[in-house]
Design a protein that fits this description.
It is a single chain. The protein is α+β, with helices and mostly antiparallel strands. It contains 15 helices and 30 strands. Helix 9 packs across helix 14. The termini are far apart. Keywords: Magnesium, Metal-binding. One of its GO terms (molecular function) is catalytic activity. It holds the Pfam family FAA_hydrolase.
């Protein structure tokens, strides 16, 4: 192992590190406990970069900018490369790690959505990667038996050990994987993910992280960071402003309860989670999907009315392209009436509208509440392209659509009140998504079944769809037989619907067709 470095390189400028790292690479999720907490378990490692100017040392403070809310800590094990690694195998990888130490992957969730996974602003700020205070020789420890612990104001907040059963990926895999794509140089730092327990800290809190090998009595010592508030000015003309919603609060705090948010009942979990599409058991079977595609909305609407549901039509919307058929599960997006101060805080950057279009899944219909206000566009060609790429079944909006010619050419089924050239901010503020909404005077809940054709768009509760479509399909079969008789010149009296002798003839025909 190469452990040679000059005293100047090991000066206070680089704290305990052998040299200024050329790269700081962080892992999104590595611990089973963290994956369970988030409800998302990756199949392969994923990474992001942090700036070398984000480094700080034990005893330094971390500044939460004024006007931000969600500064979260993440106690982690840091690997420091001691020998250049390029295309090394998994068996060889640990031999290229020179040292391990404690680290804290701080981040401001107020910028997390805007960063879209890059974490440039949320985690790249000065001082947001404390490491130290001491290095442990990596070759003297077992990478499968390292412990990381985090304390907030003296109380334990995180504790986990890198045993195989606790890790989604072994530590050495990060070195081997990354070395396939880039040369890992001496001094480069890899932050190996955080276990469950990460949460929000506020000015006045003190966070401590320690990495140790309990069986050997080796320790990094406690990495101590105090949180302070600092003045900050974010210029909207230059970039995104801080912005949080309940989803970011839940992610930053670790749970809805910890964030002080209402606990969502199990039946409402899909609508509460902005990143969760309808579950596999809610997906429409191929048979039901085909029957919905071949059944007119008029017939489906009649069956819903027969079951007591009358407010199921999204009023006033028509397809951009006549002859369009639309079937899918609802994903919802809500706009509030335009208000300048709210649009300033919620309209720019990676807002709810953009997040909803990015998150729409194959087979979903993005249903937009715009309060029947068509005086500005609620989507245009770029967002239509995004929805099309994601495999969306279509879009329904009780507002307007911009770039109509381009949107039509894209081929995404779109139902709208009409075209309008104005941008969103003229009438609307993008506010939230994956919640119950009112579109065209109809209530739409995420996971509802949406069906549209030239007659309009209807909403079918997911729990009723099989019953409704089977009944409508049977009625369509009957109506087709009746239409043939009427075309032959028979009067509709007693035939529409069939009664008496006509009913007997139809039932005989139906039984013959079904093979009974």
């Amino acid at each position: 192992m190469n452990t040679e470095f000059t005293e100047a390189e090991n000066s206070a400028a680089f704290g305990p590190l052998p040299t200024r790292p050329g790269k700081i690479i962080a892992i999104h999720v590595a611990y089973e406990s963290r994956a369970a907490q988030r409800g998302r378990r990756p199949e392969k490692p994923s990474y992001f970069l942090k700036t070398s100017s984000s480094l700080s040392w034990s005893g330094d403070v971390i500044a939460r900018p004024a006007g931000t809310e969600l500064l979260a800590f993440e106690g982690e094990i840091a690997l420091i490369i001691g020998r250049t690694a390029r295309n090394v195998s998994l068996d060889e990888a640990w031999g290229h790690v020179g040292w391990v130490t404690a680290s804290n992957d701080f981040g401001i969730y107020d910028f997390r959505a805007a960063d879209k996974g890059s974490n440039v602003r949320s985690k790249g700020r000065d001082g947001y990667t404390p490491v130290g205070p001491s290095l442990i020789d990596a070759q003297s420890v077992d990478p499968n038996n390292l412990r990381v612990r985090t304390w907030v104001n003296g109380a334990i907040a995180q504790e986990d050990v890198t045993r195989p059963e606790n890790m989604i990926f072994p530590l050495a895999q990060f070195v081997a994987d990354l070395s396939q794509h880039m040369t890992l140089e001496v001094g480069d730092v890899i932050l190996t993910g955080t276990p469950a327990g990460s949460s929000v800290v506020v000015p006045g809190d003190v966070v401590e992280v320690e990495v140790d090998a309990p069986d050997l009595g080796l320790s990094s010592g406690k990495l101590v960071t105090a949180v302070v508030e600092a003045p900050a000015q974010f210029d909207e003309s230059l970039g995104n402003l801080p912005l949080v919603d309940d989803k970011q609060r839940e992610e930053a705090w670790g749970s809805r309860e910890a964030a002080g948010l209402p606990v969502v009942a199990a039946a409402d979990e899909t609508s509460a989670d902005q990143e969760t599409a309808a579950s596999a058991e809610d997906a429409l079977s191929p048979e039901i999907l085909e029957k919905l595609k071949s059944t007119p909305t008029a017939g489906l609407s009649a069956q819903l009315r027969a079951r007591g549901l009358n407010q199921v039509v999204i009023e006033g919307v028509r397809p951009l392209t006549p002859g369009t058929k639309l079937v899918g599960l609802a994903k919802t997006l809500r706009f509030l009436p335009g208000r300048e101060d709210l649009f300033k805080s919620h309209g720019g950057g990676y807002n709810a509208q953009m997040r909803a279009f990015d998150a729409v899944k194959p087979g979903e219909v993005l249903v937009i509440e715009a309060r029947n206000e068509s005086g500005s566009g609620t989507l245009g060609d770029i967002l239509a392209i995004r929805a099309k790429f994601n495999g969306a079944a279509g879009v329904v909006t009780d507002g307007g659509v911009r770039d109509v010619a381009a949107v039509t050419e894209i081929g995404l089924p779109v139902f709208t009140r009409g075209a309008h050239p104005a941008v969103l901010g003229r009438k609307h503020v993008p506010w939230d998504y994956d919640i119950a909404i009112a579109c065209g005077n109809a209530t739409v809940v995420p996971g509802d079944v949406i069906v549209g054709d030239d007659d309009g768009v209807i909403v079918i509760p997911r729990g009723m769809v099989e019953e409704v479509v089977e009944a409508a399909h049977a009625k369509e079969f009957e109506d087709a037989w009746v239409a043939e008789r009427v075309a032959e010149g028979h009067p509709v009296d007693g035939l529409f619907p069939p009664t008496g002798e006509w009913k007997a003839q139809f039932e005989a025909y139906r039984d013959q067709q079904s093979g009974n």
